Fold this sequence. Notes:
The complex is a heterodimer.
Chain A: E1 9-10, E2 23-27, E3 33-38, E4 44-48, E5 57-59, E6 66-71, E7 77-82, E8 86-91, E9 97-103, E10 108-113, E11 119-124, E12 129-133, E13 139-143, E14 150-155, E15 161-166, E16 171-175, E17 181-185, E18 203-204, E19 210-214, E20 220-224, E21 230-234, E22 242-247, E23 253-258, E24 262-267, E25 272-278, E26 283-288, E27 294-299, E28 303-308, H1 322-351, H2 353-383, H3 390-405, H4 411-418, E29 440-444, E30 448-455, E31 458-465, E32 477-479, E33 485-488, E34 492-497, E35 506-512, E36 522-526, E37 531-536, E38 540-545, E39 549-554, E40 559-564, E41 569-575, E42 578-586, E43 595-602, E44 607-614, E45 622-627, E46 633-637, E47 641-646, E48 652-658, H5 659-662, E49 667-674, E50 678-685, E51 700-703, H6 716-742, H7 750-779, H8 783-792, H9 796-808, H10 812-841, H11 845-858, H12 865-870, H13 877-903, H14 906-935, H15 948-956, H16 961-978, H17 981-1006
Helix pairs in contact in A: 2-3, 6-7, 6-17, 7-8, 7-9, 8-10, 9-10, 9-15, 10-11, 10-14, 11-17, 13-16, 13-17, 14-15, 14-16
Chain B: H1 2-6, H2 14-21, E1 25-30, E2 37-39, E3 42-44, E4 53-56, H3 57-65, E5 69-72, H4 79-91, H5 102-112, H6 120-147, H7 160-188, H8 195-213
Antiparallel strand pairs in B: 1-4, 1-5, 2-3
Organism (chain A): Dorcoceras hygrometricum
GO cellular component, one term (chain A): nuclear replication fork
Domain WDHD1 first WD40 (chain A): 24-306
Amino acid sequence: MKIRTMKLREAHKNGENEESSFCSVLWDSTADHIVTASSADNSICIHDAVSPSNPPKFLNNHREGVTVLALSPNSTCLASGSIDHSVKLYKFPGGDFETNITRFTLPIRALAFNKSGTILAAAGDDEGIKLVNTIDGTIARVLKGHKGSITSIAFDPKNEYLASLDSIGTVIYWELQSGCTLHVLKAIAPNNASDVSAMNILAWSPDGEMLAVPGLKNDVVMYDRDTAERLFSLRGDHLKPICFLSWSPNGKYLATSGLDQQILIWDVDKKQDIDRQKFSELISCMAWKPHGNALAVIDVMGKYGVWESAVPSPLKSPTEDIPELHSKNGNGFLLLEEEEDPSASGSLSDLNEDSFGESLPKCRKRLREQGKDNDEWKEDSDDELDSIPKFESRKKPHHSKKDNLDNVKSGSRNVIANVGPKMQGSFQSGATPAKAGKRNFLCYNMLGSITTMEHDGYSHIEIDFHDTSRGPRVPAMTDYFGFTMASLSENGCAFANPCKGEKNMSTLMYRPFSTWANNSEWSMRFEGEEVRAVALGNSWVAAVTSINFLRIFTHGGLQRYIFSLDGPVVTAAGFKDELAVVMHVSPSLPSDEQMLEFRVFNIHSGTQPLRGRLPLTPGSCLTWFGFSDDGQLSSFDSKGVLRVYTNLYGGSWLPLFSVSKLCKSEENYWVVGLNKSKLFCIVCKSPESFPQCTPKPILTCLDLSFPLASSDLGADSLENEFMMYNIHLSQASLHNSIQKSIDEMAALGHDTTSLDDEAFNLETSLDRCILRLIASCCNGDKLVRATELVKLLSLDKSVRGAIKLVTALKLPNLAERFNDILEEKLLNEAVQNTVLPDIKSNCEGSTRTNNSPSSKFFTAPDISKTSDNVVAPPLNAPSSTLKRKQNEEGPAIDANGTREHITTTSNDILPPSNTLSSNFFTRKKNVERRANDTNGTKKHDETTAPGKTIEVRNSTSSKDINSVKESKSGEMKQQVCSRPSNPFAKASNNDTSSLLDSLKKMKKADS
Amino acid sequence: MAGASGSNASAFSAAELEFLAEDEMVEIVPNFRMEPLNFISGDFGPFIPQMPTEVPLWLAVSLRKRGKCTIRTPEWMSVEKLTQVLEAERDSEKFQPLPFHYVEISRLLFDHAREDIPDIYMVRSLIEDIKDVRFHKIGTGLEIISKERTYALRLKNLSAMEANIVRPFVTKALETFHKLSSSEMIQETDHISNRQPQATNRGPRGDISSDHLG
C-alpha cells in the first residue's frame, strides 16, 4: 500500500504554545458544509464544502475551547460542548446562536443527537450523561454509572439503546426507555485518562447491529447490539491504540485513526484494511461525506482536510447503497418514530415530574418561537452570502414550514431530498475569502487590486494599481455597506454587497477614477433582489442579481438596459465593450458536473456575439473566468484546467493548461490573467489555495501547453509547440482579416505589412518546429507521420530542408516521397499563378475570396534558414557553410521581394508569373545536368534512386565547384519562381478584407 | 588587519568593491510597464507590474530609489538560510558558500531597500555575525602563516570583501616568507645571480593568485 500525503488547511489556531488539542469535524447532511472546532479555540468554523473559496463562518459564542460538536440528523440544529461547561445550540447552516441548552459543572466531552433529533445526550468530566429534550430544553434523564470522564456517547440507530464510553475504557449499554444499564463492559477500551487530545470513541454501525469500540491491542472490536458479546475485531497495521473511528454511511467501511498518526480504511465484511494514509499529526476526528466518496479529517493542530476517494476506486463507494438503505430504513424509522415519539417524549417528561407541569406550555411557547425563528431564518437563508444558490434557499422555507407542522420529523426525508451534487454558487474572479482580522482581496486582476479588511463593523477598502506610474492614485475609503464583491478597470471600480436583513439592502456602488465633475460616484439600491456578480467594461457597469436580472449602467450611472437571464448566475467578466456572463443551465449532473452556460454581450453594439456551454472538468467548479490580455474568453476550474475560447471549429474551448501536467502537488495556482502564450498566476503553497494580501503577492508566469497524451514519439514539447503555433497562426490570420476590415483605409498601408510579418514569422517558426518533429519522427521510425508533417510545411524551402534531413538520416524512400510532395506543391503553385492573372484582371471580389484559402495554404514566402541550420546533414559538412551563406542571402532577397511586392500593383506581378513555368523547367534541366556531373564524384550517393533524389541533393548541396555558379543562378531563379506567390498571398488577403469591407459598408448602409 | 586594509597597498577601496558588486543580478518586482532594456551587458526586462524579473543590482537600486520597484530579497538573505549558514560557519573550519559579494549586496540592500527585506533587523544582525565569525576565522587562519612557513594559502569560498582586506597583508607576508626562505637557498646555492630567485619567486605568487588571493 502506498503512502500518500494529503493537504490540510488550517481551521483553528492552537494557541501560542502549539499544543495538541482535541479537534472535531462534521459534515452536514447535504455535504454543503464542514463544521470544525478545536478544544484550543473558542470558535466554531462552518466551512463551505462546495466552494472552499468562500469564507468560513465563525461562531464565537463559547468562552473557552470547543471540545465537541453534534449536528441534528436533519442538519438544522448544531450543538456544541465546551470546556466552559456549557452546551449551546445554533441554527444551521445560519449559525445563529439559539440557546444554552444545558450546563455542567465540568467540561463537556461528548454530545449526541438521537435519530429524530429530539434528544441530545451530553456528557463530560461530570458524573452523569444528561439526556436533554431539544425542543424545550428540559432534562429528561441523567444516566449515572461511569467512573471516569465520559468521552463518547452514541445513540443506537434504532433508538432503543445508548452506548457510552469513558476515558478509562468502560463501555455501558443503556436502555433508553427505562434508563437502566443493560451491560457494563469494563476495561475493554484503552485507558486514555491522561491524554486530552486523544479520546476514546465508540460508534454504532449504521444498521445498528454492531457497536465498534477501540480495543486494547491496537484494534477495533465489534460488539453485538443486544447481547453485547464480542463479535470480531479488526486488526491490522495500527501500531498504537485507535483514538477515533467512523463508519461509512453505508456501513461497509470503517475509518480508524490511531495514535500512530495514520488513518486506516477497513472493509468491515472482509475484516481487512484496504487503504491507509499517514499524517504528520494525530488525526483527532474524521467524518465521512454523506454522499460521495470522501472523508473529512482534522488533526490535533486544528488543520482539516478532505480525503477524496478514501475508498479506492474499484471498490464500492462508501455511500453507494445509502439511498436504498436510507429510504428503506428511513421510512421504517419515520413510522417508528411517529409512533414512538409522542410516547417517548411523554414518558420522558412523565419521568421528570418536576418539570412536567411547565414543560407543556413551555413547549408550545417554544414552538411558536421556533415558527417565528423559521420565518426569520427564511430571510436569512435568502441573504446568505456564501454559496447557497437561490433555488436552494427557495426550497428551504418549504421544508422549514413542514418542520413547523410536524416538528422535527422530516429529518430523514430532508436528507433524501437533498442528496446529489451541489450547483456552485456565484463568485467574483480574483476575490479571496474574508478572514477575520486579515485583509482579503475583493478583486485582483492584471491591472491592480482591491483589498478590504473588516474592523468594528465597517470595512477599510484600499485600491492599488500594479502599475503605479500609470494607474491613478485612489485614496483609501471606508465602507459602511460591507461590500463583498468588486470589480476594477482603468476607469473606475464597482462594489456591491448582498443584503443583510431589511435595513441593509443590496447596494451597487460605482466610483470613477478620473472625471471632470464633482461627486460623480453613484450607487443603486436593490429592493427584493441582491447583486450576485459585478463586471466593468470601458464605459459600462454590469450587475447580475439574484432574480436573474442583468442590469447595465453607464459610466455616469444611467440605467441603460435590463435583461432577464436564463439561469442563476455564476460569475461575470468585462473587457472593453464585451461582457461575459456565466450561468447555470440546470442542476448539476449526478456525476458531479456543473452545467454552465456562457454568453458574451457586446454592450456597445447591442449584440450577442457568442453563447454556448461552458465546459468544466467533471467534479470541478469554475474558479476563475475572464478575458485574456487580447480579449479571448478564458476559464479556469478547480481541477486546474485552463480553457480558452477560439473560433476554430465553429467556436470551441481549448484546454491550454493543466495543473496536473505540472506534477507539483505542493503548489496551488491562483489565476490572475493570461496572454497569448503565458498564464499569470499566484503560486500558493498548498494547502493554502488563496494568496495573502500582505506582502503583496507576485505573479508567476507559466507557459500554456496542451494536455497532450503521452505519445510514443517522446517529443511532447515539440508536439505541443506545433499545436500552439497552429493555433496562433489560425488566430493571427483571423485577427488579420478582422483588423483589416476595421482599418477601412489603406489595406496596403504599413500596418498590414507588420501584421503580415507577424504571420510570416509565425509560419517560419511553425515550419522550424515541424522540421524538428520530422526529425524525431524519423528517429522514432514513424515514417507515415513524417510524411503527414511534410505536407503541413508551408514554405518550399522547408520541404527541401526536410528532404535534406531524411537523406542525411539515410531514408531514401522517404526522401523520394517528400520530393513528390514538393513537386506537387510547386506544380500547384504554378497552376495557381497561371490562374492568377485572370483573377487579377477582373476585379471580382468573390472569386478571389473563394481562391484565397487554398492559395494561402500553399503560397508563402520561402525562408527557413534556421531550420536548415538545425538539421544540417552531417554527411556533407563542408557544404553546410556554403549553404548557410546562401540561405542568409535567401531571406534578404526575399524580404526585399516581399516588401516590394506588397506595394507593387498586380500588373507588376504578371510578368514573373508568366515566366514562371519556363523558369521552372529550365531550372529542372539545370539541376538534372548537374546531377549527371556530380553523379560520379559524390560519395554520398549511396542510393540508387534515380533522378529525383539526386536532383534535390544537388539543388541543395551546391558544393560542386562547377555548378556553384549555375546553382546560384538556379537559386535566384527559384526565388523568382516562388516570389510571385508572395504578392499573391498578400493580394488574396487584401481581397478578403476588401470583401469584408464591402460587407461592412453594406451593413452600415442597411442600418 | 585593520591596519592592513587601511594601508595604501590595498587593491581596491570598499567603494570600488561595491561598484563591482553592483553587477550581480537580483530579482525585482517592478510596478511599471516597460519594454526590455538593451544594454551592452545584456537585455533586461520586459518589465511587467508585479512580475518578477532579474536585473543587475545597480539598476535595481536606481529603480528602487525612484520608487519604481521592490527588490526581492535573495534567497540566501532569508533569516532561515542565514541562521543555517551562521551555525555551519561556527561549527566547521571551512568557509560556508555565500555569494562572492555578500557583504556589498547586503549593505546595498540595507541602504536602499530596507522596506523590502522581511525581518531586516534579524537579517542585518545575522549577516554581521556571519561576517564577524568569518573574519575571526581568517585571523586565526593567518596564524598558520607564521607557524609554518607556507608559500600559499587555500581559502575557499572567501568573499570579495574578505579577500580584499587580507590581500595586502597576506600576499606581502607570504612573499616575505618566500624571500627569506629563498635567501637561505641563495646562501646555499652560492652566488648564482638573482635571476633564479626571481624565477622561483614567480611560481608561488602564481599559486596564490590561482588560489583566490589574486
